[in-house]
């Protein structure tokens, strides 16, 4: 059974930093792309960043230059370092496993339970 | 405002059929990018419902089906049940921006 367990969320002041972690189990972690998707309170889903199994990385324009995605394949763990946080970054952040043959077919086939990040003074 | 457009809400009585649309453009759905659908029950994480336009993951009832044509896609739910009441999101890939996986704005399904 695939499990994704996020941690690291919490309350942070505007301009502050936070690091999210996602521990994966039940599949060969280093062979899959992993991603972060966020959902602001009462809003829809927004893709944030992707880490490919081979090391490629992609970011949404809304977080580029502020967020850094990384992974430790030896610990089956995905990270999201978030700097220069803004009020509009307040959201539940989901870790998800990606599946697909090419960029245009990628989808998110397993999701964690989410970690709430609140940016407020 | 999402690049993939969904109706904010749809509704239907138990047993009925509902369709949720997802309208994109020539840089995403129309560019032969696959469309996927997710179901999000209240207070829970999203769950993959349809992948690759019309494929169901193991465990998803065949009451759920997807289709794609041109720059649009649809999710059909037949034999509506109370437990289908949820938010539904379409998702695709857009080649007009730097590697961007897009979601529709979401559709709230109410079972009357």
Can you tell me about this structure?
The complex is a heterodimer of chains A (121) and B (112). Chain A is an all-beta fold. Helices cover 0% and strands 52% of the residues of chain A. Chain A contains no helices and eleven strands. In chain A, strands 2, 4, 5, 6, 9, 10 and 11 form a seven-stranded mixed beta sheet that branches. In chain A, strands 1-3-8-7 form a four-stranded antiparallel beta sheet, with no helix packed on it. In chain A, strand 4 and strand 5 (45-51) form a beta hairpin. Chain A is globular and about 40 Å long. Chain A starts with a strand and ends with a strand. The model of chain A has no long low-confidence stretch (mean pLDDT 97). With 112 residues, chain B is mainly beta. Chain B contains no helices and nine strands. Chain B has strands at residues 9-12, 18-23, 36-40, 47-50, 64-69, 72-77, 86-94, 100-103, 107-111. Chain B is globular and about 40 Å long. Chain B starts with 8 loop residues before the first strand and ends with a strand. The model of chain B has no long low-confidence stretch (mean pLDDT 95). The A-B interface holds A 35, 37, 44-47, 50, 58-61, 64, 94, 99-100, 103-114 and B 2, 31-34, 36, 38, 44-48, 51-52, 57, 89, 91, 93, 95, 97-106.
How would a textbook summarize the main sheet of chain B? 6 strands, mixed
Q: Unreliable segments of chain A (pLDDT under 50, ≥5 consecutive)?
A: none
Portion of residues in beta strands of chain A equals over 45%
Count helical runs of chain A: 0
Order of helices and strands of chain B: EEEEEEEEE
Alpha-beta content class of chain A = mainly beta
Low-pLDDT ranges of chain B: none
Output the number of helix runs of chain B. 0
Key features of this structure:
heterodimer, A: 121 residues, mainly beta, 7-stranded mixed beta sheet, 4-stranded antiparallel beta sheet, 52% strand, B: 6-stranded mixed beta sheet, 44% strand
């Amino acid at each position: 059974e695939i499990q994704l367990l996020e941690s690291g969320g919490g309350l942070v002041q505007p301009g502050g930093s936070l690091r999210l972690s996602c521990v994966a189990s039940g599949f060969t972690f280093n062979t899959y792309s992993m991603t972060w998707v966020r959902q602001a309170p009462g809003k829809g889903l927004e893709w944030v960043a992707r880490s490919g199994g081979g090391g490629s990385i992609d970011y949404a324009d809304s977080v580029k230059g502020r967020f850094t995605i990384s992974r430790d394949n030896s610990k089956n763990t995905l990270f999201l370092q978030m700097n220069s946080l803004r009020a509009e970054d307040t959201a539940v952040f989901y870790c998800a496993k990606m599946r697909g043959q090419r960029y245009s077919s990628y989808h998110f086939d397993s999701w964690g339970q989410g970690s709430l990040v609140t940016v407020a003074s | 405002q999402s690049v993939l457009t969904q109706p904010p809400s749809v509704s239907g009585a138990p047993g009925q059929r509902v369709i949720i649309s997802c309208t994109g453009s020539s840089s995403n759905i129309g560019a032969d990018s696959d469309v996927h659908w997710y179901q999000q029950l209240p207070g829970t994480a999203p769950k993959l419902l349809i992948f690759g336009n019309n494929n169901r993951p193991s465990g998803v009832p065949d009451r759920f089906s997807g289709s794609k044509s041109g720059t649009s896609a649809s999710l059909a739910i037949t034999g509506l049940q109370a437990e289908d009441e949820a938010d539904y999101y379409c998702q695709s890939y857009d080649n007009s921006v730097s590697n961007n996986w897009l979601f529709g704005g979401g559709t709230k399904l109410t079972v009357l």
